[in-house]
Amino acid sequence: MLSILAAGTLLIAGCTKTGPQGPQGPTGNANVIGENPFTVSSWTAVGAVSSNTATSYYATFTDANITSDVAAYGLVEIYKLYTINGSGWTNLPDIDGVTTTVYNFGTGGFTISVLTTDGSLTTYPDSVEFRAVIIPSSVRQANPHTNWKNYAETMAVLNKARAQGMIK
Description:
Helix content is 23%, strand content 35%. The protein is α+β, with helices and mostly antiparallel strands.
């Protein structure tokens, strides 16, 4: 019993809340890029049947912020704006009835596509507002519990990083 008491005393006496400052860690890469919203109003038809129906539509964008590191290890999220009933931003892929909006990305850019889930013809998508968020692997790893598909949660991480001067 005396040995347990002695061990407990040593443990408590050995714990301190402060200590010497550790060395500066390596500079991280916190270059999260929350790009400005953009509107797509010009779509390329695939399998056009008429001037307003096709099997799918797409729009391709170049983006130098999608580096080979981002393409291989980071994350690119594309959000679509819904203005009906104040719904706000939703992440892609988005399914609205049988119409789906999807995207893919690679080094240097991304493509947004609109098609149907049942293979039927779709109508011209008209003007749609999107926003891209580009997240390097180091930021993704530094925020492992972030739901990057949730626009509000993603923007909270971006705003915190911006307030800390980590991003523009």
